[in-house]
Structure formats: C-alpha cells, structure tokens
Design goal:
The protein is an all-alpha fold and 381 residues long. The chain folds into two domains: 27-138, no CATH class; 150-369, no CATH class. The protein is 65% helix and 3% strand. The radius of gyration is 27 Å and the shape is globular.
Length: 381
C-alpha cells in the first residue's frame, strides 16, 4: 500500500506563516523608514514658492497649530526643551553602550544599524521641525504688504534715529525702572506685555493672533551665558526660553523678540521688528527696552565720530544700563561663543537666510525703511 505524503503539523504551518508575517512587517518597516529619509531630503532641497508657503502654511496651518502647542507648553512649569535634551542624552548613552557591548564580529554591523537609526530619527525631527515652525523661513518677507523702501535707510536717517534713541532713553529711564519694580517675575512681564504683542500683530495685518508663550528659564542657562544667547524658541514645543542672566531692562524686548518668532517670523531681523513694534505699544519698561535694543544696533551703523558725539548725550541712567549689558556679554566664553554662533550662522544659511547671523542687524533697515505713523505703527500699501 502506497504511503501518502506527510501532513505538516499545525505548529509548523503556524510557524512558517508567522515568519512570513514578520518578514513582511520588516520589509514594510524598512520601506517606511526609507520613505521618511527621502521625504526629509526632498523637503530640505526642493524650492518652494514663498507665496504658496505664505498662503497655505504661514497664514493657514501654522496659525491654527501655534496656539494649541504654545498653550500646552505654557502649562508645563519646566522647559520641554530640557526634557528632550535629557532624553536625547540618555538615548546617546544607551546607543553607545549597545555598540560597545556588541560582539567584536558584529560591531561594524551594529555601527551601521545605529547610524541608520540616527539618520531616520534626524529625518523625523527635521520633518517635525518644518511642520511645527520651520517652514516660516520660506514665507514671504515681513515687508510684503508694508510701505517699505530700502532707499529710506541713509546715513542721515541712521544719525537721526541715534539722536531719537538717546532722547527716548533719557526720557524713559526713570519711569521704566519704576515699571520694572512692579514686574518682579517673567510671568508678570508676560501679562503686562501680552496686549502690546496683540497690537503689534494687528498692525502687521495678521489674520490670526499668535498666543504669547510663557517665558521659561532652562537648565541650559550656563550654555546661554557662555554663548551670549539672550533667548530662543523651542521650535518643536513652541515655548520661549530666556537666558537667566538677561537684565530686567533687556527682558521685555527679549521676550517680545521671541514672541515674534512664535508669531511665525523666523528670520531674526523680522522677529526683532515684531519685538520693536510690541515694545513701542507697551508700557514705559517695554518702550525703554525696545529703544535700548535699537540703540545697541545703531551703534554698529553710526560713523565713529557721530557715535561719540551722540553717546555724550546719554544720561547717567541709560549709560549705566548699557554698561551693565556690555559687562554681561563679556562673561561669555570665547570658544563657546565662536562655535555656537558659527553653527547658528550655518543653520540660518541652510534655512535660506543668506546673511546668516548678520541678519540680526538688519532690523535697523526694517525699522528705518518702513513708513510709520506717529505711534510707530507701520503703514501698509
């Protein structure tokens, strides 16, 4: 009698099916990760129409997203940035430990897998960066729709702005310091400055108002001190971080500048312009802080003889405040400063800001080149 072919056991059939499923899942995972990396590279390299970014992202997606994320991050008393830095550090330590513990024969394969994971994670972070905030670098410039003319920025206008700044600093110094004594915390300053931030956005024709973020102090404050960084926006948590060493007279403008970033203006000069408009609409402390910041930039634009002549008009109070700011900046560490600012310069250039960190000083061009009414509000075309 002939024998029939052996029938596979139930367990054998299930094992092979499970293996095929795991294989298919593995292939799908590889394809998904590869797609993420390709998408990140494409987003980094593909030119985008600024008008499209302005309409769809800067005035559509981002204004709808920002209030939600910033409101959530403002509820958290600590900086979310600190949490992510700690998690990233733990991830690096864990990954390094796995590579070190890998058998000698498998170490190169482990390194290759680790490098691939790093590329995938970096691609995910980059896509999240663009979605949450980063595409604002590719929008139309803030001067679009404003009565702006670069030819207005002449040596005579810079000189006149320097004289006006000195006069305002002398006039506002005493009442500004009175206001500052009534705002002992960053939280109090946020409450006092928020209406002025809303007024600045309306003056720029923003269809939706950005939510002002809660200013926070980070565990990275020593780095901010050494690098002479006044503040930053966490682009994934849309929260505002302020250097703990920033002086009270500087704080209103630093906060307003970072809120300018939250309002969707990624370039430093444009965030400073929003900060300037915010301070102009604020109380004595805010206006004084705004004029201090502008005068600091104007000092680099004035001819040396005119700078010396204008400096002599400064009162003792503003002179002491400027000296205190200069002393704070001297506490930076040159090596950390150079490395951090060089890195940020490359970051800005990679994000279509051709002037890099020099973009900070271009706020003078925005302020002097934009026609304004008697209250300092920009005129629109």
């Amino acid at each position: 009698m002939a024998r029939s072919a052996p029938t596979p056991s139930r367990a054998g059939r299930g094992g092979r099916a499970s293996g095929l499923q795991r294989g298919a899942t593995s292939v799908r995972g590889v394809v998904a990760r590869l797609a993420i990396v390709v998408a990140a590279v494409a987003l980094a390299l593909t030119p985008m129409n600024p008008a499209w970014v302005e309409r769809v992202y800067a005035r559509g997606w981002y204004p709808a997203l920002q209030p939600f994320i910033t409101s959530f991050s403002s509820l958290v008393p600590i900086a979310l940035l600190d949490v992510w830095v700690v998690l990233a550090a733990l991830g690096v330590v864990w990954t390094g430990w796995r590579v070190i513990r890998a058998p000698a024969g498998a170490r190169m394969r482990t390194w290759a897998r680790t490098l691939w994971r790093v590329v995938v994670v970096a691609s995910v972070v980059y896509i999240a960066f663009l979605a949450c905030w980063g595409l604002n670098y590719r929008r139309l410039p803030i001067t679009h729709g404003l009565d702006f003319d670069r030819s207005r920025v002449t040596a005579a206008e810079v000189d006149a702005a320097g004289l006006r700044a000195v006069a305002e600093l002398n006039r506002l110094h005493q009442p500004a310091h009175v206001d500052l004594r009534s705002m002992p915390t960053l939280a109090a300053m946020r409450v006092r400055l928020a209406p002025a931030f809303a007024a600045a956005q309306r003056a720029l024709g923003q269809p939706r108002l950005a939510t002002p973020g809660r200013p926070k102090i980070s565990m990275l404050s020593p780095f901010f001190r050494w690098a002479t960084v006044d503040g930053m926006v966490n682009p994934l948590g849309l929260e505002v971080i302020v250097n703990a060493d920033v002086l009270p007279v500087e704080q209103p403008f630093v906060i307003a500048h970072e809120w300018g970033h939250l309002a969707g203006w990624a370039r430093e000069s444009e965030a400073s312009y929003v900060g300037w408009l915010t301070c102009r609409s604020g109380d004595h402390a805010a206006r004084y802080s705004g004029w201090l910041s502008l005068y600091w930039h104007l000092r680099h634009e004035l001819a040396r003889d005119r700078l010396q002549a204008i400096d002599t008009r400064l009162g003792d109070g503003p002179r002491r405040d400027l000296a205190a700011i200069a002393a704070r900046l001297r506490r930076g560490q040159p090596m950390v400063q150079e490395a951090s600012w060089r890195t940020y310069d490359q970051f800005l250039k990679a994000n279509r800001v051709d002037s890099g960190v020099k973009n900070y000083g271009e706020v003078v061009t925005l302020i002097l080149g934009t026609a304004a009414d008697a209250e300092g509000r920009p005129r629109r075309r």
